[in-house]
Amino acid sequence: MPGKHARLGYVALVVTDIEAAASVLAGDLGLRRTDCGVGAERRTAPVFSVGESALALFAPDDPYVGGDAKPGVHHITLEVDDLDEAVADVALRGVAVAQGEDRGLHGRRRRSLSRAATCGVRAYLAERLNLEPSVPGPVERLDHVGVASSDNRAALDVFCARLGFPVESTQTDLEVSLSIESFTSDKYGVAQHARRPQIEGGLRVAFVTTGDCDLEFLQDLDPRQDATGTAEGPGTTKQDQGAIARYIASRGAGLHHIALKVRDVDQTLRALARAGRAVIDEVGRPGSRRARIGFLHPRALHGVLAHLVQREDA
What we know:
With 314 residues, this protein is an alpha+beta fold. The protein is built from 5 helices and 18 strands. A hairpin with a 4-residue loop joins strand 13 and strand 14.
């Protein structure tokens, strides 16, 4: 199975200003830049090593991402030792592979997996890129790539049962409000009544390990949640759920955000804010897997939603 020897290679990001986004990744976050050849063409794209994986930047009109892509996380590559063997294996396991191959970064061969077969995730099987890793800095590695999911069970069937990647963990995120009525009388004292807790927002979450990082599948738990509005202040579970609901309503299930594992989330958020980068969370807040997290505004990476993760590895 590919998952035994495969790992997440690079994540393709579509940004509205390549050099400005590159300045954040290299200048503010200290990631090593390599300009890689694109397909069989005589041009390059900036690629940034982050742990064993990498981030590659493309303009919305770049033919490599279809020529009319929306800003955000576009596709991932799953790097394998033997492309032909991996393609034959996943096809036998019921994961559709597009006919014909093309050339990826540095001219590496790749084959596209059907989005219908991968629950909306644009993914390629590809030969290894083998970039030089980044020097130590504020970012340790890519923690995970977030996926807006309409069906976590189906996603786990594809990526675990068929592609062979292990489940790291699953969890349920809930934001619950509790209302209390208080009756205060100068004669009879105080009486209080607690109403039943109300779920404000929720997500079903599944992490699937793909090398030194994970895919994070996020499924709306409460369909009654209003999916309107935009979060500008510090995030909450309700806002996170609304973001997933809005994404699926506008684009369908698919790749949603990236998360970078950092040594100190508060220090990194402060440094980004001092550099003029827009942040949603000014300080870290509790997140999945006993982490402290902080979201950057999509303006910071010119159309890509990203957040920072500070946590101890299990």
